[in-house]
Amino acid sequence: MDSTNSDPPAAGPALAEPSPERAPLRGTAADGLKIVVVGGFGVGKTTMVGSVSEIRPLSTEELMTRAGEGIDEADAVPEKTTTTVAFDFGRITLNDRQVLYLFGAPGQQRFWFLWDQLFSGSLGAVVLVDTRRIEDSWYAIDRLEHHRMPFVVAVNRFAERGPSLPKVRAALDLDEHVPLVECDARLRESSKSVLIELVRHLTRLHDRPAGEDAR
To answer: Which of 38, 66, 110, 205 allows an S-S link to 140, with CB 3.0 to 4.6 Å?
Structure first.
């Protein structure tokens, strides 16, 4: 779904809290804002979309089978039993008029051809990183830079602490202006803070003088 508004959210970085019943889309909603969550295989993209969405997320998770052996590199995540075969979809209400639509991209290389379609109409992206397999994030960053799409990088901290953020920035060769944060994709508040950081980044880029690099 393409965004119907190319400007960043006008109401600031605060995200509206859903009701306990997870209410349907407000009748006053007019602007759909699209964000994509990308990253390597098994880094937590489906988990992030599910943890922060105000509706039951649409998920295309399927059981992993022997047909994927030798194709999907699952050795680093032996506990993973399902995989995204298309995309994940969630929704967050920002205010009475603006709604944020979240798309989680599949991480396996055989589904990378879908990424360009998911990028279409997006305001920006979150690159989710697992520091145990940091090289799996290089392709996502390369594609976003190719599309000149603003993004933030979020290190999904699992059980292990892993390298510091400065070391991650150096390993990814990130521009100093690209936000780099930590998160736990399983927790709503932590995932929400990543989206808030992306909204702030988009706002800063929107207010930047014309001609400056917009990454």
So the answer is: 38
Long-range contacts of 210-213 (CB under 8 A, 24+ apart): 213/177
What single letter denotes the amino acid at residue 76? Answer: A
Domain ranges of the chain: 31-207
CA distance 3 to 103: 12
**What topology is assigned to 31-207 in CATH?**
Rossmann fold (3.40.50)
pLDDT per residue rounded down to tens, the chain (215 residues): 444 444 555 545 455 454 444 555 455 545 788 999 999 888 899 899 999 999 877 665 544 445 445 544 555 544 544 444 456 888 888 888 788 899 988 856 656 667 777 778 889 999 999 998 899 899 889 989 988 999 999 999 976 778 999 999 999 999 999 999 999 999 999 999 999 999 999 999 988 776 666 56
